[in-house]
């Protein structure tokens, strides 16, 4: 270090800034009683308020859940679980006591089903699914063992696609002993981004040509381009049911949206009455001790029924209030020395 | 610059022949090219990476990376590890590269310096790097010496030259070097070109003060010593030119041999951190094991049946193998409990703290224009934990500016009266007032004259006389300077010296003495002598030295004088003065001849030369006659008593280790308030034998027992004073514990008459038995060993060169800055580091353990909860800066308060803020948070739907919800932990939160997906999920459940068990009080 004589004795003096001298202006919050106790009280009250609101909202939501696994002999679907029955159809009857307010959402649910398994989750080819036909010929090795069958590439490959849920449902209202079909709306049940961005069909007309020299997934009865025979645009990778299935669930017990009931006479909901659900029972779950169910539900601003959220808010809110009282008592008793 | 270093076996002996390159090349000596840089462009990457991967943590992450490349195991994309690893490696690499660049630059500059080399009879300019061993080089005034050279001849008479060794050992005074007489005549290039002497000498070593070799020339042997050598790094002064023979070049020079790496010091937090990291590894393995067992069971019970939808891979055809793979997969995803950024962040914080120390104006001394310097950047938090300070006295507690204060001449004591200078050569700054002494000088009292004659002759001071009467003395030690100046003012003026003469002006008359021998001073001899022949031809030995060693060597005839002088000496010492006794001896011509012969013989010896010389010196320094004694005052530095008082209030024990005599030391002890009159007893241990020291220690122990018995606590304060010879016994292995327990019961300990080695031993003793953090502070070369062995070494840059500073970890100019270094910077550093570590472990456990809980719901398949980008960025972007800002800027109380309330220092000493217990609390909180973060979304989302009926329980929404909740919870937590919100904290906390959302929306955007559909699977997720009120209600709920208990706990703790810092913090204070800061900074004003 060179000391410049002409600069005097202060040549090496560090600069006098708030930063270097660690004197930056700073806010120094303290957990003072004046802030913490009212804070707890306020948070507590707010949480209680929200909790009550949530609980009331949640209570107003109607839910109807029907298990149709058919493990019990009494179940109408019991016979479908026996041996290798193809195209087995079973009918589930139920009645609704009051109007099931619309729009009603119809879900299917599976339990003990591990869509969140890591290996299951990676078993797909993203490039196929955005419609890149070059990957139709050589699917990603992630798809093993559903990469090829009989030497031909599988499109869409992988375990997720292969295991696509294939039970189908039809709902009838029984009016005067006659079955009247409740119309299902299958549009827009998948995420907008999935439908419009994440999954793309190859640019081929007809779509079938893109799938030349490929095989359908082994468990599928129909190839991807024939998933929806009634609506040509609802085929390939942007088939709504396919999209719903491909958005894998986080937990082993889950439900997925199947259809919405928004049309015709059922726009305002399902009126009270007897109903019959016709299930074409294809999807095997007994082998891995899973169950299948269907759910009817309507929603509020906060989505479907959720008792837990409201109760949790109430509990935490009341705990905050209790804590604030405890703190007040403690504070009054062991007063923090105000001055030294 | 490319230097070649031949690989040769270590030399036994070096042979160098002047002017014979061919001959010298046989030995393949290193060239004069130096390389201090570590890398070049080609080797940088491999060598630097190799070095970095020697760090266990880096290797660990490399291992993880390799694991991730195995597809069966890989539970995470390779980039989740490689991005942070690459970031950490490149930060370190950039730092190393910058350092090395500057080294390259300085190497280049040094290697390309010009030097004049004698080649084939003519002088040619050569670059330093091309100078070779055996070359004869010419040096000119003020030039740096290019290599270690043997001085052959100079332009000055007698082959003398002067050098300054500041770069070598920090001493700024000039030193004399002299060529051996036979070569001194070789003054011009022609003669030198024909010089073909051969030097045989020791192999390269790092001993700066010795050299041993022989010159063979014209069939004669000439011994060579350090006196004949000019070492690389010295600067030639006051000498027109000189010629030298290169003996050691480049890396073999003593300068380079000395620049070895210093021992790396680690802090206790470092060691604790390493232990904890090992524990975390253990924890990681346990978690991996649990989950692997879980996987085995799951695969057997569930996975086996689920094969219809997810068949086992062909290589994974049984559940045990799957469990084995799953173990490694979980090791990969749980690895973030040991975050790679931990070590880098710790280093960054420490670096910041070091800069704050360097920048502190209140540790700047304007008198010497020196700012404090943190020379080691890795020890800062240890400054907040110091329990023992070992301090040197001279130059550390005192100013080391010596003033001649009193003297005793022939039994008469003088001092402290009025004085008017009586001769024109007097030093105007000199103040010593005694009419009587003046009178006795004027009268011509022979003793008085002899006394001052001694002072003017017996020294190693160099003088410079720019113009008549304007004398400047350059002394190696301030004591000597003071004594020679005293003689000068009393009419005995030292004018100049040559190797064979000393010229003085005695009462106006110029006298030239021939200097026969200088018997040098060293720490063992504690005395120096000169043997001179006066113009009349009488030979006399003058000796000055410590009274203890001198009294033994006096003629016993005049016991009365000896006892009176001893009384005076004790009196002076009791006043805290540094004393020396003076004596002389007349030598007959025969005695001198005989001794001179034995001296020459010892001087030529090649082995144990120093010991032999010392023995010879001892032989002649006998039978001396006492002249008197001098007392020199060394004033206390400013603010020393206050600093010591403050530090002892902070529960820091201060031991003074000094070479001074006991009385001086005790007195200084009183004047700097270490010892007080209120003390119950000052225990003095000064036994000379093992038994007596043991006895003394035992009696002290019983004394304590008696004190303790009535009320079981030691009442009253004690101080221990122990002298060096007793200490030697007390440090024996069988007595050290006894000594230690006694010493530690005392409030103050003073060790006097200790050697540098003993200083280090005392420090080691405390380190060994007390497990306390020690700090050694000193200013001189004798403190270096102590500074190096203590946990923290502090060097006072003072009058005694810069060796202590070079060996130290922190350096500044004034002892009193120690209070600020410890109580302010040390305390803050410790506090910040502890808070940083607590939070760091917390946030990583909160982050990582979520995977563990999720394992139970995803078939233990090592499925991560979060998006891979989130995992990659969590530690390096989303949560790194707020905690860094806290670690950098946090203050619980302002600096003035920590000086006002020294007790605030105690938590550091007791290691309260971060220890194993605190660590467990942190990780428990982290694990609790992870439980909340997993199970709240689990409970809420499993049945929740969006407001358009689409279920929310899909994996990606779950991931986004959990990640958002996590980032919010840890951000709220850091907001709670931050006690000092500067603008940086605000920017970083809010910025991190902002960056999380910005980056997430960007990563989930369509643009990125369109370009890389394979990587960005979460397209559209952020906007879809985060628009749902339920998601926000979930996040708010999770945050409340995580934070509310912490808040309540902290509030209640603050109320029920407030720490001192809380109380102080609560006090009303202004952030910046100009009057206070002015007061503090005014403590260092120019005199």
UniProtKB/TrEMBL annotation, chain B:
Residues 16-82 form the P-type ATPase N-terminal domain. InterPro entries: ATPase_P-typ_cyto_dom_N, ATPase_P-typ_P_site, ATPase_P-typ_TM_dom_sf, ATPase_P-typ_transduc_dom_A_sf, HAD-like_sf, HAD_sf, P-type_ATPase_IV, P-type_ATPase_N. One of its GO terms (biological process) is phospholipid transport. GO terms for molecular function: ATP binding; ATP hydrolysis activity; ATPase-coupled intramembrane lipid transporter activity; magnesium ion binding. It is an enzyme of class 7 (translocase). One of its GO terms (cellular component) is membrane. The active site is at residue 392. It is a multi-pass membrane protein. ATP binds at residues 392-394, 480, 521, 544, 578, 658-660, 753, 759, 782-783. Keywords: ATP-binding, Lipid transport, Magnesium, Membrane, Metal-binding, Nucleotide-binding, Translocase, Transmembrane, Transmembrane helix, Transport. It catalyses: ATP + H2O + phospholipidSide 1 = ADP + phosphate + phospholipidSide 2. Its EC number is 7.6.2.1. Mg(2+) binds at residues 392, 394, 779, 783. Its cofactor is Mg(2+). The chain crosses the membrane at residues 60-89, 276-298, 318-344, 836-857, 869-889, 919-940, 955-976, 988-1009, 1029-1052. Its main location: membrane. It is found in: Endomembrane system; Membrane. Residues 805-1058 form the P-type ATPase C-terminal domain. Belongs to the cation transport ATPase (P-type) (TC 3.A.3) family. Type IV subfamily. PANTHER family: PHOSPHOLIPID-TRANSPORTING ATPASE ID, PROBABLE PHOSPHOLIPID-TRANSPORTING ATPASE. This is Phospholipid-transporting ATPase.
